[in-house]
């Protein structure tokens, strides 16, 4: 190994995994700022605007590789390259507009890794070639579920490298493996990838580590908690309210805003928020409800949201993906940000971002997201009983009606979110792989052995 390592991060560039992509890109950018060489290997899709200048990037495989039940080099190298000449916005519109397109693609990816005697050998060989050509010494796999690729690549390279895996949304891979009837193979190969890695796997929260031990039967001693990092907000005056009215022209300054920002998919529990909003409106509370964010699995759930809103008679300010400037303005001016997820989030990146801008958060008591809103005795938000729209309504009512409580949480929120700085994350990452001798960041870097 060289004294100054070069990192590669293998990540899936969009879709249901956009949060993980942001996490991986944030780490890549931070490592580059520290003076390390970094290359990102994209799978399926790319999101190059997330990367800072100086971070190299390559396309490891196009989504077309998994158009059929077995991986296709022709579909990847020929059709994929042609398709990627089209604007990315058009590619994603097609993927979302065809019902079941993304699910089918991801199912075929899972099949290529776990349905056959060996994982996708041709792709592992390509990964090994990239690593050799780029002089990579340390490889971070964006998911534990694709760790088998790194393990297979190690067998095919003339230049040794070390790898580690990250678990950050692997339950979706596990669900697809179950649908393909290969759960036992999936668990075995994921466990092998974790055990054969040089370092314990990174997990984004204590709750998620416990879930992996229970659901995937992984060894807790091979898991270590390292929370995500977010870039701190720029100092200065708050974003002007007019930024919001460009996207939501009916928003008013004089009514409190309850905001959801995130992927508009069924597991995010937006319907629970709509039911809670109806309960509060029936009690005479006056507020504005904003729901916005991208989709990855098609537009069906967004259509369902519109149908539910119509049946409930809720006035909703609704949008698709928004700019970072609009997101920051929304968090700066909203009464609170809500994460009503029903799926046990591995972390809560949006929640940390909202709190960093002074927005108290309301989150479920299930998943790693509950770990984001409190730091010891200090809280930057409230917790409701998961799947309980009535309790969600009660917590929202407290924030809407109790000005003293809201002021306390809004004051605490940025300080609680400060734990999740990018610098803390990269310090913890480097310490984890033995490249930093300083004391580990408080709370952010934890052994999961006791799980």
Task: Describe the protein in words.
The protein has 451 residues and is α/β, with parallel strands linked by helices. The protein has two domains: 250 residues, Rossmann fold; 178 residues, Rossmann fold. The chain is built from 17 helices and 16 strands. Strand 1, helix 1 and strand 2 form a beta-alpha-beta unit. Helix 11 packs across helix 15. It is globular. The two termini are 33 Å apart. The relative contact order is 0.11. About 2% of the residues have low confidence.
Keywords:
451 residues, alpha/beta, Rossmann fold, 8-stranded mixed beta sheet, 17 helices
Describe the secondary structure blueprint for this structure:
Layout: E1 6-12, H1 18-33, E2 37-44, E3 56-62, H2 73-83, H3 88-97, H4 101-114, H5 121-134, E4 138-141, H6 147-154, E5 162-167, H7 171-179, H8 183-196, E6 201-203, H9 206-216, E7 223-226, H10 242-247, E8 257-261, H11 270-282, E9 288-292, H12 300-312, E10 316-319, H13 324-333, E11 336-338, H14 349-356, E12 361-364, E13 374-375, E14 378-379, E15 381-384, H15 389-401, H16 403-417, H17 422-432, E16 445-447
Parallel strand pairs: 1-2, 1-4, 2-3, 4-5, 5-6, 6-7, 8-9, 8-11, 9-10, 11-12, 12-15
Antiparallel strand pairs: 7-16, 13-14
Helix pairs in contact: 1-17, 4-7, 5-6, 6-8, 11-12, 11-15, 14-16
């Amino acid at each position: 190994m060289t004294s100054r390592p070069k990192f590669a991060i293998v990540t899936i560039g969009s879709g249901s995994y956009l949060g993980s992509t942001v996490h991986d890109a944030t780490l890549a950018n931070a490592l580059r700022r520290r003076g390390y060489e970094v290359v990102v290997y994209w799978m399926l899709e790319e999101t190059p605007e997330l990367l800072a200048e100086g971070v190299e990037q390559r396309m490891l495989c196009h989504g077309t590789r998994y158009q059929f039940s077995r991986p296709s080099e022709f579909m990847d190298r020929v059709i994929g390259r042609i398709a990627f000449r089209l604007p990315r916005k058009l590619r994603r519109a097609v993927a979302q507009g065809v019902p079941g397109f993304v699910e089918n693609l991801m199912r075929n990816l899972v099949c290529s890794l776990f349905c056959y005697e060996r994982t996708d050998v041709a792709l592992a060989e390509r990964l090994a070639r990239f690593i050799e050509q780029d002089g990579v010494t340390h490889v971070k796999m964006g998911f534990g579920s694709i760790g088998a690729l790194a393990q297979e690549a190690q067998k095919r390279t003339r230049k040794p490298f070390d790898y580690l895996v990250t678990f950050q949304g692997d339950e979706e891979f596990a669900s697809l493996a179950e649908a393909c009837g290969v759960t036992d193979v999936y668990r075995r190969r994921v466990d092998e990838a974790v055990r054969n890695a040089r370092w314990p796997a990174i997990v984004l929260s204590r709750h998620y580590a416990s879930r992996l031990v229970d659901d995937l039967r992984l060894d807790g001693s091979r898991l270590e908690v390292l929370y995500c990092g977010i870039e701190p907000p720029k100092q200065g005056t708050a974003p002007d309210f007019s930024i919001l009215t460009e996207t939501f022209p009916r928003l008013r300054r004089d009514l409190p805003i309850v905001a959801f920002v995130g992927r508009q998919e069924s597991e995010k529990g937006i319907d629970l928020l709509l039911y809670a909003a109806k309960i509060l409106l029936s009690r005479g509370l006056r507020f504005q409800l904003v729901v916005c964010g991208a989709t990855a699995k098609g537009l069906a759930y967004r259509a369902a949201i519109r149908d539910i809103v119509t049946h409930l008679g809720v006035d909703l300010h609704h949008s698709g993906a928004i700019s970072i400037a609009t997101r920051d303005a929304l968090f700066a001016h909203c009464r609170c940000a809500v994460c009503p997820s029903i799926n046990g989030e591995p972390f809560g990146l949006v929640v940390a971002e909202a709190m960093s801008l002074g927005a108290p958060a309301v989150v479920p008591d299930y998943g790693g997201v509950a770990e984001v809103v409190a730091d010891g005795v200090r809280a930057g938000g409230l917790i409701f009983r998961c799947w309980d729209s009535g309790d969600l309504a009660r917590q929202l009512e407290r924030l809407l009606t109790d000005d003293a409580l809201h002021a306390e949480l809004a004051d605490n929120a940025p300080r609680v979110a400060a734990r999740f700085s990018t610098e803390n994350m990269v310090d913890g990452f480097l310490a984890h792989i033995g490249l930093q001798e300083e004391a580990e960041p408080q709370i952010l870097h934890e052994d999961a052995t006791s799980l």
